[in-house]
Every structure is written in structure tokens, then in C-alpha cells.
DNA sequence: CCTAATCCCATTGACGCCCATGATATCCCA
DNA sequence: TGGGATATCATGGGCGTCAATGGGATTAGG
């Protein structure tokens, strides 16, 4: 399955196009739909993105929440109606729709930040600020990751 | 599974390249991605490195945490955006990006220090200082290590 | 018919690929 | 056991290629 790590800052040209980092494109090469799926984060001023397979797994996950329950309603309403399919052009760029740009407050440049199974698009400065906060919180709350396997590792 | 021990000091050339010690490369020979994954250590002025399988297992671990939870957000934000994939060139070297060099205060040379399942890259003098401190602490606090047996534990 | 999106091509600068060198360690055989 | 031959590794540098970017042309769509 696709892996997204690292951060790349690319320019948004006057037509509203951005190059998707070649590394990320390579991670999506297997996919039938050549492009990305993006939706505004309901928590952050960022866009959450991945390949279509990830969107499918999200949908899959929501089916495990009771239909007609408030949780189900909230989640599916927050996630899916504003999600967009953004196909690559010949050079591996996407067009960022107005609504998405506005949500992430994008102007000149866009930062593509890997998040493991998916990635996010940020206004570069906002990303830096957010990362700093997140690191702080992770340290304060002593977040750890239990690793699988015979030995345990903790890294905060 | 890959094993990294011993320390090797190699030169950083003017293009920012360093040879990864042949021993470490050999430990990663099985991997589909020929290169290493590196990210700035949270506590130390060093880079923590391993093969892609290690990063995959990290990602795997984060998928066991609820998506959109604060815990998930903090962890993935602290780990993945600053991690870099560094592929080997034909001679087994990697390019150290500016950001990583800055974090580890690397200039002329880089010390590759095995840490068991992963390894670290240090400014050689800083590594010496750190090792001395660590040895001292280990002795002072009488660190012990439970060996593998019926139940696993990590000592704190 | 006008706007907007897609396609296509050109530029450029970084970095990946290749070869050459020297230094070490290893091996082989006398 | 010594000494030379050889392989391996770390290092340096030149060159080609590809990724990111910009702009013009063509098509679609309202």
C-alpha cells in the first residue's frame, strides 16, 4: 500500500496548478485513477489527500458505524460531500479548486506533507506552526507507539 | 531482520553525499527500497535511520490508532512529515538534505552509529560526548536488561 | 462567443548515474 | 609467514536526465 512521508513545497502557478511531488505520484502509480482525492480537513486548515483506494477504505470504515446514528451522519457529511477527485495533467500537476484553496488558505505555494497512509496539503507556514504544536503535544502527553513484535519500543 | 552495530565515520563531500557503511548496506540488501529512511530525533541532535520496512511498521502501528483522534494526529504529524527517503546511489551513498544536516549539526563528516534495529547519524564529536554520558548514566543508574524469555519487558 | 480547463512544448536547475582514483583489507600462494 | 595480487570500499567529479515550472495553443462547455 502507498506510503507518504517527507514534506515538499511546490509553487502554485497563476492557473492554479501545483506539481504533486514525484515521490507521491510514484506511490500512486499502481492506482487505476491517475490523480488524487482531496477533501478539506474538518479539524485543520489543510487538505487531506490520498489515492482512491484510501477513500474507499474510509467509506469502508464508515460502514462499521451504525447507519442513521449521529456519528455516521456527522462523519459521512464531514468527509464525503466536499471531497474532490483531482486528476494529474501530463506533467503530474493537479488543479486546486477555489474552495479547497480557500479552506487551506493557499496562495503562492503549497506544502505536501506525508502522514503515512495519506498526505496533507498546507500553506507552508501554517504547516510549520502545526508541526511544532503537534510535537509539543506528543511530548507533553507522552504519546508512544506500541510496535508490533516480540520487543516493545517506545519513542515519544 | 536487519542488525546495526559498530560505528563508522565517513566524509560528506561537497555535494552533500555520504557513503553508508557497507555493513549497514548489507543489512538492508533484502529490502525492495534500496536506501534508508531518516528523521530527526526528537531528543537528540542526531538522525534516526533504518530501512523502509521499519517505517512501514511505524505506519502500520499508527493505523491501529483511530483516524482523526488527537493521538493519531500528533503522532503522525511528529513522525512522518520530517522523515525522508534517501535512496542509495550506485556507490551506496545517500544525499543528506539541508534540513537533516542542520538538525544533526553535520558539516565535514558523519558518524553512523549502530543502535541495534536502527542506527543514528551524528556529528562525530557530539556522538563521543553522548556515548560517554550514556555509559555514565547506565552505570550510575545500574541499568539492566531483561533477556528474552516467557514474558517480554522493556526496562526503563 | 467567451471563459476556463486540458494539452503540449520549452526551459532550468538539481540530482541521479556513471566512471575513475586511491586506500584498505583480503586472499592466495610460495 | 611474508609479500604480492585482487577485491572491496570510500571518495571525487563530469554529464545526462528528469522533475518542477511557465507559457502558449487547442478544445470543451456554458
TL;DR?
Two copies of one chain form a homodimer. Chain A has 156 residues and is an alpha+beta fold.
Oligomer: homodimer
Which range does the strand content of chain A fall in? 15-25%
User: DSSP helix count of chain A?
Assistant: 5
What's the number of extended β-strand segments of chain A? 8
Computed Rg of chain A: 17 Å
Strand order, largest beta sheet of chain A: 1-7-8-4-3-5
Please estimate the helix content of chain A.
25-40%
Residue runs with pLDDT of under 50 for 5 or more positions of chain A:
150-156
SSE class of chain A: alpha+beta
Average of pLDDT of chain A: 92
Question: Describe it for me?
Answer:
- The structure is a homodimer of 156-residue chains.
- Chain A has five helices and eight strands; from the N terminus they run E-E-H-E-E-H-H-E-E-H-E-E-H.
- By secondary structure, chain A is of the alpha+beta class.
- The model of chain A is unreliable at 150-156 (pLDDT under 50).
- The A-B interface holds A 3-7, 23, 42-43, 58, 61, 113-117, 127, 130-131, 134-135, 137-139, 141, 143, 145-156 and B 37, 42, 52, 55-64, 67-68, 70-71, 73-85, 117, 148, 152-154.
- Chain B binds a DNA duplex (30 and 30 nucleotides) through strand 2.
Chart the SSEs and their pairings.
The structure is a homodimer.
Chain A: E1 7-11, E2 17-19, H1 22-27, E3 35-40, E4 47-50, H2 52-62, H3 70-79, E5 84-87, E6 93-95, H4 98-104, E7 109-114, E8 119-122, H5 124-140
Antiparallel strand pairs in A: 1-7, 2-6, 3-4, 3-5, 4-8, 7-8
Chain B binds a DNA duplex (30 and 30 nucleotides) through β2.
